[in-house]
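@channel sequence for tomorrow's demo:
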Amino acid sequence: MNKALQLFLYLLISALVTTSFPGFLCGRQLQGPNSEARELFAEWDTSRTPGCSVGVIRDGEFIFKESFGMADLEHGVPLASDSMFYACSVSKQFVAMCVLLLEEEGRLALDDDVREYLPDFPDYGTPITIRHLVHHTSGIKDYFGLWEMAGNDFQDYMPDQAVYELIKRQKSLNFTPGEEHLYSNSCYFLLYRIIEKVSDMNLREYADREIFTPLGMNDSFFHDDFRRLIPNRAMGYYPGENHGFLNQISRFDLVGSGGMFTCIEDFLPWDGNFYRNRLGRGDQELIRRMTTSGKLNNGKDVGYAFALVPGSYRGLEIIEHSGSLGGYRTHYLRFPGERFSVVILSNLSSFDPGSKARELAEIYLGEGMQAPEGEDSTHSAESLPAGTDKEPATLTIDPAIREQYSGAWHSEELDTTYRIEAHNDHLELKVRYRPAMKLNPAGPGYFEGTSLHIEFEKDSQSKAVSFSAGVQGVRDIIFTKVP
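structure tokens (generated this afternoon):
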């Protein structure tokens, strides 16, 4: 072959490659939505950080499925589409589906009093129904908040029965059932116990038989024993100093409020089942019920369905749920009208999958979205702390009453004693082995810390005799002074 022919063939092939694959000869990746999607996760696309697995689904198929970062930093294992993540509160929708399947079988009814199945549960003077649990309108105090208020760490082992007894020990509810919506992990913890009572199976077995096996979610399961091995587990991490990472090691293995381990691959059949139901009797009515929001006693929509949060984003209907616990962060976002979904599973506590899910949606659906200005969108499902309307903070504690705050204070509901020291401008609270918490004055007799708030009650002689304490999901835990 002469040189002229060689040159002609080289130029011809170059032209064809350049036309068919723009940017190829310059060493660049193809331009397009998938390239933009990868750019969103460039920060974690390295062997030096934890990261995430991402799935974008359209019309029943993955159009983008990639993993970024490491599943195990100590052993150099990268994340992959079959990496197993703790799903956190995204697990709740599978618990809710179990409830609906049992209802379809006629084995329970949503308006049944929970005491029909848990007869030792307290009677608060008005029925708490399964429906109240599903939609977080029960008023039952959040067990995570109670557990930590008692001076414990949720990453330690939390015995199932001890948590149940702690919930039952509460003398009051946050509110009358059906009057408010307040996210409480206790609701789904109780649902799991009801499911087991009705089905005569544990949740892991029932969900596997009724959901995971029929849908081909072959790797998903409820992790009810922290000693069990989990092949392909993505370890959880949180940020350390100097851009490093620390292990988030936990023995937590309660189910119901969370507990499911899963991978990106298994979300494809779960997502597809919303459009063509294959569970139970195969009736699409099951899906309609699953995605219908609950209501308060006054008929107002609570904005929370069966562990799914309906809403809108830039003019498009969405339904979603988020999750966070320890070193894991998760988000599942669906655009049902577009048959489009985003699933993000992360093993880093500082990761924000909800925001990334929306950014991905904008990449693929942006042309069909309204401009972001003025959009009233719904975001996530984990309840955010409520504001307070207490009086403005004072700068010092009145010396005349400072000593009244000092001493030991006991709560029967938590079976816990707080020790309080009063300083000129704050209180210092100590409980068990936890680090001391600084509580700053935020009004007369009212103090706030990073999570806890307390308000002192006085007798007729203006002497502090008790205080009520609360955290997110827990109101009015009463402490009285120890003589």
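heads up for whoever presents: The domain at 85-139+174-368 is CATH 3.40.710.10 (Beta-lactamase).
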